[in-house]
Write the structure tokens for this entry.
Amino acid sequence: MKKANAFAWKPFLRALAAIAIPVALQNLLTTTGSMIDTMMVAPLGQNTVGALGLCAQFSSLMFSCYWGFVGGGMLFIAQYWGAGDERGIERSYGMTLTCLMTVAVTFAVLAMAFPELIMRIYTDKEALRSIGVQYLRIIGLAYIFQVFSMAMSVLLRSTEHVVIPFAASIVSVGSNIFLNWVFIYGHLGAPALGFRGAAIATVCAGAINVLLILLLSLAVRYPFLFRFRGHFRWDSEFIATFFRKCFPIICNELLVGIGFMVINVTLGRQPEDIIAAVAVFRTIEGLVIGFFAGFSNASSILVGTCVGAGEPRKAFERAKRLVYLCSLVIASAELLIYLFRNPLLHTMSLSGSSYRAGEVLLLIYFIAAVIRMGNWIQNDTYRAAGDAVYGTVLEISFMYAMVIPALLLSAFVLHAPYWVVFLCCYIDEPIRYILMQRHLYSARWIKPVTEQGRKALSVFLAERNQSAEAVD
């Protein structure tokens, strides 16, 4: 006989798979496209691979600046979706879109107007800077398309319509690969543009992605994307609530992004073969993060909708299981990548000392990433449930008090080997994991933004207190 409060595994796993698998496959497609980009420019030389890798770090900084708004948007949209509040969904999307596009336009202008300044920040190697400047002037336009498609994907995923962005990504990545072949090497009558051709292909693929999401949403009559008036019907109370919830996430992503920029600038001062190895590693790392993103989105939606719908106990039980399932999947993905490291690294132009460096980086990451992704998914779960502060304070505190000082000391004072410098990027993860686990089991991260969620939370907390007293 089953217990009345037994966890419903089958519907949970079905719901998890329905969200996580398409999102993971979409991110895997995007990352695979990035890997193929690297493979296709590899014949142009190690400097080209390294320079484009440094440009990708500037894109990562943009990601850090807008991801806070993505997290905030998912928090609100998922909870309003769980509560059935269409007006809340519409204006949450409008606010998210406005914030994201502000970041995108800012970075696009920086990339196209000030590429020399950007490259001087990221590396002291003139050969790499020269390539990067030309690439950034073109790729900046792609930022606008990429971030616009991200905003639409946030809305679609948070309302459990994950197939549309997934289908659009299939076509977009395929287009990117094909256009790379055309523009990099000059096929079908096009001029051979080298790395500049790769940038043009990325811009075109971004535009295709946006267009397809819009067309597919129209075809299935998806309601929320085209209710333009509802997107911008904000009042002062909603704006204050949105930014109050988003502010810790924005601070976290921005300060962590700056921290990662310091990390990348430090690694950009290593020898050219190490820079190339880091560029290839970042591409392969994207495969792991792609798998993680599926669980991250699923966690935000599956937990956030329960919190918004007034089911805090269900949200709590789901959150616990999501953390450990994520760790298991990430460990499996990393093992697979590490087993195939030889063909991966060689295909992306690494050989000799750069190959050996890439192998060491992967080994360190193989050990560290399971813990790191566990921390990330717990933080994403807390955010979706309304607690954007706890994980933020931990991550920022440890990065600036431990990681960055250790990194700078090892690189510029002790002149330690590259692998020691790289290892310093992960020294805080085990400590944070223990603290995040304690917070997870406390259930203090459940903070609804909907009325029914707040009412149910008080009952849930009272029941937990009674249970704790009974145990004592």
